[in-house]
Specification:
Bound molecules: zinc ion
CATH topology of the largest domain in chain A: Retinoid X Receptor
CATH class of the largest domain in chain A: Mainly Alpha
Largest interface: A-B, 40 and 38 residues
Low-confidence stretches of chain A: 1-15, 93-108
Structural class of chain A: mainly alpha
CATH superfamily of the largest domain in chain A: Retinoid X Receptor
Helix content of chain A: 55-70%
Oligomer: homodimer
Largest sheet of chain A: 2 strands, antiparallel
Keywords (chains A, B): DNA-binding, Metal-binding, Nucleus, Receptor, Transcription, Transcription regulation, Zinc, Zinc-finger
Number of helices of chain A: 14
GO molecular function (chains A, B): DNA-binding transcription factor activity; RNA polymerase II cis-regulatory region sequence-specific DNA binding; zinc ion binding
Strand content of chain A: under 5%
Subcellular location (chains A, B): Nucleus
Radius of gyration of chain A: 31 Å
Number of strands of chain A: 2
Mean pLDDT of chain A: 84
Distance between the termini of chain A: 66 Å
Number of domains of chain A: 2
Family (chains A, B): Belongs to the nuclear hormone receptor family.
Pfam families (chains A, B): Hormone_recep, zf-C4
Order of helices and strands of chain A: EEHHHHHHHHHHHHHH
Chain lengths: 366, 366
DNA sequence: CCGGGTCATAGGTCAC
DNA sequence: GTGACCTATGACCCG
């Protein structure tokens, strides 16, 4: 807000109100020894604390006109001193020790900086997610590589021109969705720190769950109550539906129950992106190396922190509750993806003629 | 302006002038029981009158340097107390309104009141847990009621005098541990709000997992690396160990892997008590009614809030990370208790002559 | 002497 | 960077 009520000229009008000795605007008291306005107070403070120094681009006479004075930091600072302002320049070691302790567990970043960091993180995650989504929509492939091969040579899966008459089957959609998630998570820097063995186990453990999670979110965003695949059909192959036709309840529950919870919680896309990587960084994955566990645990911590911050910002009332509600979604996801695995496994045993691609077998744990 | 005539260093110069016991600046007399300067006097007064509470952003050692001490309110207050300051916390009617507003989740309570509430909650949970523990140690029973019967008539399981020569078997310990957890959770008020059907499903789902969790914590507290039963023997019946003698790895992992994680995290008993009930209030339990889910979800929220507060108080660096690490323990618990169920199930099929009590069959989901 | 209280102002935040 | 505004601090006063 501009101070319309603060004339910038020198005329010493309205004797009552005190005026800044430096710039003649209204003052509310002494600061650092001189009667001064908030602005001059803060200006002086910043100069001393940050040990700044300026040089006048005129002839050190800017103090003659108040307007010019405010433009020339050298003359302004000079006038502050002339009018008796003084402040202890805080000692070097103090500044340093403060900065040094920063990197440790960096708690000393100001709230604003933290928010800035968070929004950058969210923006990046959002961009990655959008790319994944775009790829899923535009990509089509007939490749049939195992999870291991894909992880070792991420480029092997080639985009193939799709016959426009060809209706993408549920099994193909599953493949594309799984694959798009593998590339998505593969983009995170820390993945490179992992050994191949760990990487394989981690992706084997996570890919189906988080692809399923993505499907649930898609359903929420499309305001449907039942999950369909990106093409808008049932996620299950027809033959599988047929096998369970006498008891479709289980198939339906997988597509509906967790969606309800997402709707209840009104999960935002930012929350989804953070949870996605938090869930990915599951340090409880069996049989991975201690190094891998540490890396996952550390990153789970980092993203949890961000999620909590986000909850605090958007969910003033009760951030911890919100946080637990969100984290607990993992329960719904694991429950139902396990169920799905079982149903597919039984189908696979009953219909061995039905050919699933390797990636599906690997991630569904056949 | 800083008091230039008041040196801030510790050197006890100029013997004549009295110095503040807290910050070493000049003091003019005693205040609230300690020789102190005006500043420390007023600081202490404000904290007590306004019931403020602070937490150190360092490691509760700021009192080592006088400059840091003045910046850290937590350490400053601590030092005031250490040097003998005391002041009656005035008791107006405000204190009473606190208890009335207890059940809501409202946020308007002051930091100090919140901490008070939290410590009451923790004390209560701790007492309940201690009782459960005492019961487990002293109780013995030959009853064989189903989970449903126990839930309907909690009194049916009678304490029986045990033949002092009788060595309690692993199977009996399992029964006693499971039973003690059922009575433990049955003591929570909100359980009464649940219908019988829901209650049964909830206990069926939770009892083994949380009894297992308790066993893991017992192992942590006894500083062992491998879970044994409360009697100090293997948790598995001998016959079961025999069945898996060629591959004892799975049996061992259940007893060890999650213990490692508990040790890593140095889980406190307060955290355990809160997690215990948070995990119990799992709204993702399949097939329970919407009312039950709501009740569980609400209570999970309440206790999550408390856990987060606790993490904030004890884990300055990074409460959200701590919180996620703790909540994520549920992953370890479910993973391993499922594995345990499977191992018992297979054993049950292989050795139908081995009679498990009804409660064990119900909670292990035979 | 010491408890209770006041108020100018230092230090910091954040929208601009 | 700037400056309006907020909260914690502590010198001082009164009974
Ligand atoms: Zn000014
Ligand atoms: Zn100038
Ligand atoms: Zn002092
Ligand atoms: Zn401190």
């Amino acid at each position: 807000m501009t101070l319309s009520f603060v004339p910038l000229d020198w005329s010493p009008i309205s004797e009552k109100t005190k005026r800044c000795e430096i710039c003649n605007r209204v003052a509310f008291g002494k600061h650092y020894g001189a009667l001064s306005c908030y602005a001059c107070k803060m200006f002086y403070r910043r100069v001393v604390v940050k040990k700044l120094s300026y040089k006048c681009r005129g002839f050190n006479e800017c103090s003659r006109s108040p307007k010019r004075l405010l433009k020339c930091q050298a003359c302004r600072y000079q006038k502050c001193q002339d009018k008796g302002m003084y402040m202890e320049p805080l000692e070097d070691d103090e500044v340093k020790s403060e900065e040094a302790s920063d990197d440790g567990i960096l708690e000393l970043t100001s709230p604003n900086q933290k928010i800035e960091k968070l929004s950058i993180l969210l923006k990046n995650l959002n961009i990655m997610d959008k790319k994944r989504h775009a790829k899923l929509k535009s990509f089509y492939s007939l490749n049939d590589e195992s999870l291991e091969t894909i992880l070792m040579h991420p480029g092997v899966v080639r985009n193939t021109k799709k016959d426009p008459d060809h209706q993408v089957t549920p099994e193909e959609w599953a493949f594309l969705a799984l694959y798009s998630h593998i590339t998505y998570f593969h983009n995170f820097e820390f993945i490179r720190e992992l050994g191949m063995d760990d990487k394989k186990k981690i992706f084997q453990y996570n890919t189906l769950k988080l692809t399923y999670f993505c499907g649930l979110m898609r359903t929420l965003n499309e305001k449907r109550m039942r999950m369909l695949n990106p093409g808008g059909q049932e996620i299950y192959p027809d033959d599988l539906i047929d096998l369970y036709r006498t008891n479709p309840h289980n198939l339906a529950r997988i597509c509906c129950q967790p969606v309800n919870r997402l709707i209840e919680l009104k999960v935002t896309n930012e929350e989804y992106c953070l949870m996605n990587i938090i869930f990915f960084c599951n340090p409880a994955i069996p049989d991975i190396s201690d190094e891998a566990r540490l890396i996952l645990s550390r990153h789970q911590g980092i993203y949890s922190n961000a999620l909590f911050q986000y909850c605090e910002l958007t969910n003033q009332q009760n951030a911890p509750t919100r946080m637990t509600d969100l984290i607990w979604l993992y329960e719904y996801i694991t429950k139902n993806s396990q169920e799905m695995e079982t149903l597919f496994m039984i189908f696979h045993c009953n219909a061995p003629h039905f050919k699933f691609r390797k990636l599906i077998r690997d991630t569904f744990h056949f």
